[in-house]
Amino acid sequence: MSQETIYLDYAATAPLQDDVKERVTAMLDVFGNPSSLHRIGMDAEANLSAARESVLQALGARQGRLVFTGGGTEANNLAVQGSAPHLEGRGRHIITTAIEHPAVHEPLRALSARGWEVTHVRPDANGDVSLADVVNAIRQDTVLVSMMHVNNETGAILPVEELSRVLEEYPKIRFHVDGTQALGKIPVRLANTSIDLYTVSAHKIGALKGVGALYVRQGVRLEPILYGGGQEAGTRSGTENVLGADAFGIAAAIAVENVRLDKDAAQTRQWFIDELEHIPGWTVRKPKSASPYIVNASLAGLRGEVIVHALESKGVFVSSGSACSTARGKQKRSHVLEAMGLSTEEIDAAVRFSWHPGTNKEDLRKALVVVREQSEWLRSMVGA
Amino acid sequence: MFDHILVRYGEINTKGQNRSQLEQMLMRNVQQAVKHWDEIRVRRISNRILVKLNGAPVDAVLEPLTRVFGISSLSPVMVAPLDVDAIVDVANRLLDRLEVAPRTFKVEVRRGNKRFPLDSPTLTRHVGAALLASHPSLTVDVHHPDAIVQIDVRDEGVFLYAEKIPGAAGLPVGMSGRVCALLSGGIDSPVAVWKAMKRGLQVDLVHFHSFPFTSERAQRKVEELTGTLAAWSTDLNLHLVSLTETQAAIQKSCPEELRTIILRRMMFRICEAMAHSKGWLALVTGDSLGQVASQTLEGIFAVDAVTSLSVLRPVGMEDKQDIIDRARQIGTFETSIQPYDDCCSIFAPKRPKTHPSLAEVVHGEEKLDVEQLVQTALQSVESKKIAPRLDALLQLT
């Protein structure tokens, strides 16, 4: 493989940042158990606290706490399952969207099997979710809203900040936001919001896999989903992953800074879309409000996976559909694109280009050259 | 403690002329199967092969040997010195080691060593009586015993064995020549390969892919299947060939309902082009009559017409369920049913013609530059040697 590699699948996962790699290597000798009473334990605890502070700061949170988990999926499950027992006395209605990640969908489905009612707000054809639709879904017995900040497939930014202002009028409703695709891609400032729970994941911003966190607003009570030694203030038992948390803390600080510095991000995305639309056969999803680092598009007449392989053979790495839903062989159709009302053909032909603030425009340009070449070749193959 | 494994071979015995050559082949295959144990020695003793364990674990060694074609049965052997008391002692231990405790038994003695003081009937009675005395629940049944204690009095010592483990039967791989098999990754073709190997064929495998329309996972799956099949033979050659250009050309210039048949014809042509340099004498496919459109008699005829090689279809007359049962036994089934995104489907005709005439097919591929496509495919060939996948190897002690 002498050819250059252009990785455009940052929404799936990000490579370790260089600073994080160095830090992790240096931290390998910090082995203490934060619960130990001796100095070695306390050193580990100090690292853990610093990491907690760093992530809270990256989220722009002024108060509240952070619970480290074994990833974004666990944080989402903790938010949903851990809220249910504290809410059901006041009502059993939940509002979510039709485009959430399975890590939110599935725990909600489990609740609906236990008698909860879940309303799924649908996006429009561009992938945007309207604030009005969510507000209109509020009922007397609504106790939880769970909504993602940035959609992992289309990049659509959902109106979580606006909604949090509306929800200030509804003290009974708890508000959970899955921010997995937001941190390190768009500014996040929880202090200006009434968001109760916010999910983040470490590997999406160039730290380690198997590490995530749930921000918990002050005064919000959660029932644990893992019981044990009572770590993380009783919310998440299990000896803390000090190394993973530490790396997360470092990566979060860097990621937020990079977002701030990438002033041309929106412009670059627009340019990328324009270029892509100039290549015959491509149609692009264009949410009105979108992350500058995700572009979802289809090449008519082809299957997403074929496009992925054709591009990877030339060193460009993208994903088809949602990276997480390519279950072994059973290509589940993207529920996000289905909810937007796209045709089956268009859904099957969808690929996602996703990058991050550190991606340079030159690489995007090179990738577009490959896309053009391979598109022509693929289309000639299938007689398009 | 077992000292040897006695290997018997059945079918070979019926072949007069080439017998010594065949025995050599089986010897070599047995040696291959046990090559992971340096301490093992393999030698021939009158119509049998003796695997001397020298401390290697008997059960672990039996495992690969039960997959060597050409072996009719196997017996773990204990050796006793030429002394009656010692023979009784080992016979006792042999009985106690049987997995299922027998209720009835008999003793059979063969006395090749005529200098041994007791003759066969005397030794039989002596050992029988001793075993009855030490195992009160046992009775003798000379017609249908649960266990037969075989005592083979030889010059260098006495062999005792009571178990007869069935071998894989068939003929030693390699004695029937070398062929090429088309391995798709489905359920049928690995079974076809297995049956070909069982009849003594040395099989090279060809897998056609159409990257990027098929994924690399499909390729990994085929490598895994090859590894499983190699456990029944030895390292196998796998040739990966790209059909992408061919499929595109067929897509462009052939009638849709004939695409599958024409694609199969191209596969055969490519194999035939490789056959001479590889020494293949025939093609093996996993076709099973009537399973899919290209597997009707007309389809088969139209495809076979492009090659002068014999086409062998070992599962051609088998029911799907029987093929599946066999695949489970061989160990390929679980891999074969692994789904992966097979994007070939975009090339597949919606309604393939099930009974095409040869004239129709020939006419249908008129616009195809067959020569050039075969050359392009040949340039894409990637060859690998795949070693046996032996889960048993992990348990070596």
UniProtKB/TrEMBL annotation, chain A:
The organism's place on the tree of life at top rank: Bacteria
Cofactor list: pyridoxal 5'-phosphate
All copies of domain Aminotransferase class V, residue ranges: 6-364
Pfam family, one: Aminotran_5
InterPro entries attached to this UniProt entry: Aminotrans_V_dom, Aminotrans_V_PyrdxlP_BS, Cysteine_dSase, PyrdxlP-dep_Trfase, PyrdxlP-dep_Trfase_major, PyrdxlP-dep_Trfase_small
SUPFAM superfamilies referenced in this protein's UniProt entry, alphabetically: PLP-dependent transferases
Family named by the database record: Belongs to the class-V pyridoxal-phosphate-dependent aminotransferase family. NifS/IscS subfamily.
Name of the protein in question: Cysteine desulfurase family protein
Organism (species): Alicyclobacillus fastidiosus
From TrEMBL, chain B:
PROSITE patterns, alphabetized: THUMP
Domain THUMP: 59-164
Recorded catalytic activity of this chain's protein: [ThiS sulfur-carrier protein]-C-terminal Gly-Gly-AMP + S-sulfanyl-L-cysteinyl-[cysteine desulfurase] + AH2 = [ThiS sulfur-carrier protein]-C-terminal-Gly-aminoethanethioate + L-cysteinyl-[cysteine desulfurase] + A + AMP + 2 H(+); [ThiI sulfur-carrier protein]-S-sulfanyl-L-cysteine + a uridine in tRNA + 2 reduced [2Fe-2S]-[ferredoxin] + ATP + H(+) = [ThiI sulfur-carrier protein]-L-cysteine + a 4-thiouridine in tRNA + 2 oxidized [2Fe-2S]-[ferredoxin] + AMP + diphosphate
Highest taxon listed in the record's lineage: Bacteria
Localization: Cytoplasm
Pfam families according to UniProt: ThiI, ThiI_fer, THUMP
EC identifiers of the protein: 2.8.1.4
Enzyme class: transferase
InterPro entries xrefs: Rossmann-like_a/b/a_fold (IPR014729), ThiI_AANH (IPR020536), ThiI_fer (IPR054173), ThiI_N (IPR049961), THUMP_dom (IPR004114), THUMP_ThiI (IPR049962), tRNA_STrfase (IPR003720), tRNA_sulfurtransferase_ThiI (IPR050102)
Family: Belongs to the ThiI family.
Role this protein plays: Catalyzes the ATP-dependent transfer of a sulfur to tRNA to produce 4-thiouridine in position 8 of tRNAs, which functions as a near-UV photosensor. Also catalyzes the transfer of sulfur to the sulfur carrier protein ThiS, forming ThiS-thiocarboxylate. This is a step in the synthesis of thiazole, in the thiamine biosynthesis pathway. The sulfur is donated as persulfide by IscS.
Name used for this protein in its record: Probable tRNA sulfurtransferase
Lineage: Bacteria, Bacillati, Bacillota, Bacilli, Bacillales
This protein's encoding gene: thiI
